[in-house]
C-alpha cells in the first residue's frame, strides 16, 4: 500500500456534539496522522464549490444549507492507503446502513446529517486538499 493523503471533514452535527476528539482518536488508532487541520465556518459559495459534483442532485440545496449551519473541522489525513482507510472508518453514507463501530454508526443521525466527509478517491483527495489548504499548510510528520 502506498502512503496517501486524504481530506476528512467533521461536519456541523458532529462538531456540535463535541466529538472532534473521539473522531481524531479513531484516525490515530488506525494509523492515520493529521498533517493539516483547521476549523472553518464555510460560506455558501465555499460549500457549493466543494460539493459542485452534486449540483444536479435533489439533495444539493439541503446539503449546502447543512454544511453552512455551523463550523466544520477540516483535516488532511496521511497514512498507508489513507483514502480507503478513512472511508472504512466513516462507514456507509446512510448511518442506518453503516457497520457497527464506524464513525457514522456511532455519531450520525441521518443520511443528511452524517457526521463526516471523506474523499472517495486519490484523485478527488488531491483536488479537495488543494481546495482547503495551500501546500505550505500541510506538514510532513
Ligand atoms: N446526501 C444526502 N442525501 C442523499 C445522499 C447524500 O443528504 O440522499 C449527502 C450526505 O451528507 C453525503 C453527501 O451528500 O455525505 C455526499 O454524498 P455521497 O454520495 O458522495 O456520500 P459520501 O461520499 O459522503 O458517503
Automatic annotation (TrEMBL):
Catalytic site: 117 (pros-phosphohistidine intermediate)
* Keyword Transport attributed: no
- Which InterPro entries does the entry link to? NDK-like_dom (IPR034907), NDK-like_dom_sf (IPR036850), Nucleoside_diP_kinase (IPR001564), Nucleoside_diP_kinase_AS (IPR023005)
Q: Which residues bind ATP?
A: 11, 59, 87, 93, 104, 114
The EC number(s) given in the record are 2.7.4.6
- Per its UniProt record, what CDD domains does this chain match? NDPk_I (cd04413)
Q: Which reaction does it catalyse?
A: a ribonucleoside 5'-diphosphate + ATP = a ribonucleoside 5'-triphosphate + ADP; a 2'-deoxyribonucleoside 5'-diphosphate + ATP = a 2'-deoxyribonucleoside 5'-triphosphate + ADP
Q: Which domain of life is it from?
A: Bacteria
UniProt lists the family membership as follows: Belongs to the NDK family.
What's this protein's name?
Nucleoside diphosphate kinase
